[in-house]
Amino acid sequence: MKVISELSQLLFPSRCFGCQRLGPTICSGCRSSWHPHYYRTKFDSLTVHSSLLYTPTASKIIVAAKESGLRGADELIINAVIHALERSKLDLTFTRLVPVPSSKSSQRRRGRSFVVDLVHQISQRTGIQILDCLELSRRVLDQSGLHRDERATNLAGAFRVTSQVRGELILVDDVVTTGATLREAYRAVKSQGLESVGSVCAVTACVAQPLR
Ligand SMILES: [Zn+2]
């Protein structure tokens, strides 16, 4: 395998997945613009903890992980989510991480369920349990091509809870823009009853600046 990867480096020299320049898979310029801070956003009663603003570089890094399956990009996103978890000051002892799944068609195209895959790795590294209990119950369009109102309509009632939900939950997604996806995921877990579901918040690697 090593020979193959060295050969492919020779035939297809690597490019930075942030700016596409030839060179290491992430150049120092892009690496420094991916610098985790801490942002807290509210979408109705859902608090979202994030590490980075969704800049053009951040968006390319997410695409490199999500669509091209580049492990180096996965790594940046995993670390950003862990950073936001640490900075959130949440008591993580009894919480469980709930990945927000993508559509079946995206999963087929990517060969994996992107966020579920990342959350498994986050769970392994942090010791926080995972509760993979959400799925999309019907076909939805890719959110990225849609406007704010269309996003909300596209996902309304789209998530279904597949296993018993209880306790404190943290929804996990790669990025929050209009909040439509997380709001629907929140609604789905909350619909399981107030007695069994404790507090629910969310964590993402990136947060889009408020849309003006
Ligand atoms: Zn770069």
Please describe the topology of this protein.
Layout (H helix, E strand, L loop, with lengths): L1 H10 L16 H6 L5 E5 L2 E8 L2 H11 L4 H17 L7 E5 L4 H7 L3 H13 L2 E2 L3 E3 L11 H8 L3 E3 L5 E10 L3 H11 L6 E11 L5
Parallel strand pairs: 2-8, 3-4, 3-7, 7-8
Antiparallel strand pairs: 1-2, 5-6
Helix pairs in contact: 3-4, 4-6
The site of zinc ion has 7 residues, from helix 2.
Explained architecture:
The protein is α/β, with parallel strands linked by helices. The chain folds into 2 domains: 1-33, no CATH class; 36-207, 3-Layer(aba) Sandwich (Rossmann fold). It has 8 helices and 8 strands. It has helices at 2-11, 28-33, 56-66, 71-87, 104-110, 114-126, 148-155, 180-190; strands at residues 39-43, 46-53, 95-99, 129-130, 134-136, 159-161, 167-176, 197-207. Strands 1-2-8-7-3-4 form a 6-stranded mixed beta sheet, with helices on both faces. Strands 5-6 form a two-stranded antiparallel sheet. Strand 7, helix 8 and strand 8 (197-207) form a beta-alpha-beta unit. Helix 3 (56-66) packs across helix 4 and helix 4 (71-87) packs across helix 6. The protein is globular, with a radius of gyration of 17 Å. The N and C termini lie far apart (49 Å). Bound molecules: zinc ion.
